[in-house]
């Protein structure tokens, strides 16, 4: 079934569990990941970023059709999420084509501009029962993690996160606590003290971007301290690329690439404790 992410993220928060939010790019990839969610009886957030329209040559509308097709057949809650929405126009298209959740990412803008556009997105999405995620602080890329002074991430300030939430009333908040997008050059250091302070100051579910290669233990700790949604992409691509090294038979590789991605999702469900959500008192009502 297709759901927005509000209820499942709240359940995840109560259960100290995380929901993986992998980025997707093909029908086989979407179908395979939803099959794993069904097999493990876990909710799943399927993400498609605005920038992937060009990269993957797949429009927001085409993605909505594909995910709705497979998502509606699933026996577990599936959320269709626009990742890193950077323009209001793309978010409008996602909202009107059937996405159940959207992210407005104005984290590179000034605080006031980030607040203004995030509020506008909340006004658009909330009456349609679509969840809104925004980002405060900025999660950059994984380059330069051998020298933390040079990294392009901007860690989230607790006071800023609180004011941002009070002004925008978004449903969930992506925060920067030391992870980064893509592969790391160097080692990420996650600021768990900052995470805990933000969690204690704001009641809405918190989101971690740049989940890949952050380390199983780091992710488990992050989830135990209040992260409820973990965005992941690079790990899925790396697993596929590694699968290609074993044979040059196209069809074997084609299928193996996707089988490897399914294995990655199974491990994420396990170490983010996603399976625990099945014990939540509202789970049965949601999947009825
Ligand atoms: P990774 O590719 O580092 O896992 O990050 C994905 C992400 O945060 C998408 O929003």
Labels describing this entry:
binds 1,3-dihydroxyacetonephosphate, single chain, TIM Barrel, alpha/beta, 288 residues
Straight-line distance between termini = 10 Å
**H/E topology pattern:** EHEHEHHEHEHEHEHEHEHHH
Averaging pLDDT over every residue, what do you get? 95
Fill in the CATH topology. Answer: TIM Barrel
Instruction: Specify Rg, calculated over alpha carbons.
Output: 18 Å
Q: Which residues sit in consecutive blocks of at least 5 with pLDDT less than 50?
A: none
- Level-2 CATH architecture: Alpha-Beta Barrel
Please bin the fraction of helical residues: 40-55%
How many domains make up the 3D coordinates?
1
Summarize the structure.
By secondary structure, the protein is an alpha/beta fold. The chain has helices at 6-15, 27-40, 52-56, 60-73, 88-97, 111-125, 158-168, 192-201, 216-224, 234-243, 250-271, 283-287; strands spanning 2-3, 19-22, 44-49, 78-85, 101-104, 131-136, 172-175, 206-208, 227-232. Helix 6 runs parallel beside helix 7 (158-168).
List the helices and strands and how they pair.
Elements: E1 2-3, H1 6-15, E2 19-22, H2 27-40, E3 44-49, H3 52-56, H4 60-73, E4 78-85, H5 88-97, E5 101-104, H6 111-125, E6 131-136, H7 158-168, E7 172-175, H8 192-201, E8 206-208, H9 216-224, E9 227-232, H10 234-243, H11 250-271, H12 283-287
Parallel strand pairs: 1-4, 2-9, 3-4, 4-5, 5-6, 6-7, 7-8, 8-9
Helix pairs in contact: 2-4, 2-11, 4-5, 5-6, 6-7, 7-8, 10-11
The chain binds 1,3-dihydroxyacetonephosphate (13P).
